[in-house]
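User: You have something folded?
Assistant:
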Amino acid sequence: MYEAFYGFTAAPFQLTPDARFFFASEGQTRALAHLTFGLQQGDGFVVITGEIGAGKTTLAERLWSRLDPNAHLLARIATTHLSGDELFRLAMAGFGVDITGGDKALMLLGFARMLGRQRAAGCRCVLVVDEAQNLSHAALEELRMLSNLSQGGGAPGVQIVLLGQPEFRDMLASRALDQLRQRVIASFHLHPLGRHETRAYVEHRLSAVGWTGTPSITADAFEAVHGATGGVPRRINRLFGRVLLHGALEELAQLDAALVDAVARELARDLDGPPPSEPAAHGAAMGRPNFGRPGRAGPGARPSGPDTVAARLEALELGMGRFSQMLGE
């Protein structure tokens, strides 16, 4: 909705990681350098950690988009509440090894043959495991075992990249994982964006979809965005996407701190529910929402401003739901 109103070519604040929107903050640049260095070694583990939404997966997407697909065979595992055996089978399947027989020895043999073929073709094998903090010690031991397998002739076998939340660093510090920790050749922790980087991040993503200054954004709006999100990219995306939606509904040419703060409060209510003294719904109006400019006069005029946008959104969602039911009938 707001993309058309502001003339954007795409949604700039989608939550799905996309290498097109990679923002080279100081932290992301340093993390990318560590990832690149680790992959150049062709062996061992590379560990990238950060808070939820700090940009770990986006960082990985950026790197993969720059790798030569003819020189790297990439397998990825995103679901990590797995036993050691389940993780092993997913890794095998990711590299194209037949797992239908169920015999681990045969799968390892197939894996070794695959490594040999890739080596002959000049291709490195890379396994990426996301949400590594959810892995059990048994699963991590399976990964360590796989990293020990060579392609023959002493050449490195599969290289493993682990992406995880901060608690994964504590896991690695335990004595039980000492052997794995000794095979970590590069690691980096992503921190949230600072105030200046938060502004640059928002402007970067807007510019990527054709923003040329409309809507204009006040300096205090950027300060409010950082204050509400702590500089965590995913939180910024969620908040500013909703800010743009409210701006489009109100037909605003300028976004300010008051709007950002109102939207942040609305998002908090969405997550936590209304306080006991606040009604669960913003009115019972079911009619067509008024998308007119603030202060527009007329018999059907409604109060305007950030606090009324939630009611308009609710009415719109209810109308869309009724339309869907009619189609289903």
Notes: The radius of gyration is 25 Å. The longest strand covers residues 158-164.
